[in-house]
Amino acid sequence: MGNKIAVPRGTNDILPEEMPLWYEIESVVRECFNLYNYKEIRTPIFEDVGLFQRSLGATSDVVNKQLLCLASDKKEGFALRPEGTASIVRSYIENSMNRKEALSKLFYIGSMFRGERPQKGRLRQFHQIGAEVIGTDVCSPYLDADVIALSVNLLKSFGLNGFKLKINTLGSPEDKETFSSMLRGALQHKMLDLCEDCQDRFDRNVFRILDCKNKECRLIVENLDIGDRYLSQESRDYYCQVMAVLTRLGIEFEESPHLVRGLDYYTHTVFEISDPSLGSQDALGAGGRYNNLVSQLGGPKVDAIGFALGIERILLALGEDQKQALADPLLAYLIVLDENLMDQGVTILNELRSGCISADMSWKNSSMKSQMRQANKMGALNVVFIGADEMERGVVGLKNMETGEQEEISIKDQNFDLLIKKLH
Ligand code: HAM
């Protein structure tokens, strides 16, 4: 016998018993995006490496350390997508969406790939729910707040409520430049006290030192006195208005001056939603504005904002009750008490399904007790019984598995309407 082959580290099978929850999440997502007037888009799972280098930043960790490149015998270089924004922007430009509509509101659900060191909540293949809003003259604090509210409302619609929204602004590209020189100036003399990663970040991506988790680095960062001096008055006013609109919409948030994000394309508003119950990988989702990315990739001068939520982290944050409430339960489990009644059994099962009742049964003749156990295991909401006595009287037994209530329902003349009505 050969050795068994395991699933690659940092990836997961999504097993049949987990699928109902995934379907439900995806269906809640589609409903919610529909309410906000977003349209779905699907792009390839791999792209030209250059796309990620030019958008996320050649020095960002995601490109520098985590990009999963595909072996190719040609000169072309492809990589599995580590996130969705770059691909959506590529598609926006390639399909001249700006000529078709003033504002494109797009959403996507799909797998992303990062060559990270796997741990709880950190995978090499994971799934994101993402949204991108791209258009001419849509740099509006009202839109920023609407997009942030959408990300929060999506999480609430899954039943989550223990999360925290943090927001910050990086200001305009010029403000960002000022910010990075101020940071370098303030950190220059503390270089040797920074962790090895941060010493590397000093040149590569100085902002990332601000959200380093290392204790010593944190202490140094807490004592930096930069405040929001790097911001122009215009950027400051914009940010204040985003916060005012969030308050008007009843969205709770916390200002977080050290929130900088790991991808290069952000300017102005950035945000992150975290759930303390998740431990070290606590970000459920994140996003922000990226007004220069489209033109930087050769497209028109348009503004843009978006976010992405991690589905696996959402699942980790959901309690058993919340998962139960989300998953579509089996409405009926049929118990056939006598093997000679299998013909009637399959007829009833077929009728229930025609009436849009999800239904199943035990396909082998076993005791009542073992069939009840099976119904319980499947989480069936109701059990329908048929035995010789019931068939003679033209009825079936119906047990509500939640309340334990039991009754008889007529199926005289093979009319199943009453039973279907009861089960809906
Ligand atoms: P991100 O912060 O890199 O942003 O990822 C967004 C979310 O994806 C994270 O908050 C987390 O829930 C999930 N995630 C990221 N990496 C992993 C991983 N290795 N394992 C499991 N889950 C993970 C972006 O991707 C941006 N494209 C968001 C955006 C859209 N900004 C503007 N538009």
Spell out the blueprint of helices and strands.
Blueprint: H1 19-35, E1 39-40, E2 46-48, H2 49-56, H3 61-64, E3 69-70, E4 78-80, H4 85-94, H5 97-100, E5 103-113, E6 125-135, H6 141-157, E7 164-169, H7 173-187, H8 196-204, H9 215-222, H10 233-248, E8 254-255, E9 267-274, E10 283-289, H11 293-296, E11 303-310, H12 311-317, H13 320-326, E12 332-336, H14 342-354, E13 359-361, H15 368-377, E14 382-386, H16 388-393, E15 395-400, E16 406-410, H17 417-423
Parallel strand pairs: 1-5, 7-8, 12-13, 12-14
Antiparallel strand pairs: 2-4, 3-4, 5-6, 6-11, 7-9, 9-10, 10-11, 14-15, 15-16
The chain binds histidyl-adenosine monophosphate.
Descriptive account of the structure:
The chain contains 17 helices and 16 strands. The chain has helices at 19-35, 49-56, 61-64, 85-94, 97-100, 141-157, 173-187, 196-204, 215-222, 233-248, 293-296, 311-317, 320-326, 342-354, 368-377, 388-393, 417-423, and strands at residues 39-40, 46-48, 69-70, 78-80, 103-113, 125-135, 164-169, 254-255, 267-274, 283-289, 303-310, 332-336, 359-361, 382-386, 395-400, 406-410. The chain has an eight-stranded mixed β-sheet with strand order 1-5-6-11-10-9-7-8, sandwiched between helices. Strands 13-12-14-15-16 form a five-stranded mixed β-sheet, sandwiched between helices. It has a three-stranded antiparallel β-sheet with strand order 2-4-3. With 424 residues, the chain is an alpha+beta fold. The protein starts with 18 loop residues before the first helix and ends with a helix. The longest helix is centred in the first third of the chain and has 17 residues, at 19-35. The site of histidyl-adenosine monophosphate (HAM) has 24 residues, from strand 6, strand 10, strand 11 and helix 12.
